[in-house]
Structures are given as C-alpha cells and as structure tokens.
Amino acid sequence: MKKGLKKILGFFLATCMLVGMSMTTYASENENQPEAGDIVDGSMLIKEDYSESILYNPARGNILNRGAARISEIGSGQINAYGAVMPAVKCDTLRLEMTVQRLVGGSWANVKSYSDISYNASLLAKSYNCSVTKGYYYRVKAACIATKGGTTETQMPVTNGIWIG
Description:
The chain is mainly beta. The protein has 1 helix and 11 strands.
C-alpha cells in the first residue's frame, strides 16, 4: 500500500512540476509605473487637457503678489507652457524661468527651459508652444522672481502632470 501511495504521490508531483514549468506568465509592461491619480514629486498625475498652479503671497506690503504656471495640450504632440510674474507694485526687474518636464519612470526629467526678464515692469507673462513625445506625463515648473530696490521675492508654482497621448 505504501509503495502504491508513493507512486501516486510521485506521479502527482511530477505532473505539477510539468504543468508549472509549461505555464506562460506575463509581466505587466507598466508594472510599477506611475498612473493617473498618483502623486510624483508633488504633482498629481491627471488625464486633463491642462493644469494650472497659482501661488498667492498672503503678506501685506509684499512685492510679488502672484506667480503662475500652466501647461495645456494643444494637440498633435504640442503643449503650451505659460508662466506669469504678477507683482503688487512696479518692480525694477521681473524674471520668469520655466521648465517643461516629462515623467520618465518615477522621476521628472527636463525637456525644455525658457528664461525671460523685464525691467521697470508691473507684469511679466510669457507663453511658449513646444513639441513633445506622446505617451508621457508632462508638467511645467516655474520660478517667478520680483526685485524692487534691494528686496527680492520669489514663488515657485508647479503644475500637475497631464497625459499627452
């Protein structure tokens, strides 16, 4: 009886091994890839046509009132990057540094940068169209800088990541 039980058990184990070795398994192509709803480095990944971030200065008597950044999908693998420096008073210099970033793996990589400066101004707003590779999330990071006299104030708005497909 023991000999018959050993044969059955051996046959069963051999069958399990053969079935297990012949099974095809598939790994997900996007395994561990960020997806809509995830937050990566402070930016939520969204499936929208645009994203905007406006930072306000709550302090009274400030120089820099608002800093803004926006990214918009305009179609055919094109995005629009917009940024604005909005001071409360006329400033000696206004500076806007914008960077378009693409999500690669789990981190943001710089794609294109823009730099603008304006003198004796009370507003600096710029908009640029940029060709991008489809199939990625993109965001705009901006540095909004206002200087009056010897005082400099900055704001760093960052948009959410939008899918360009």
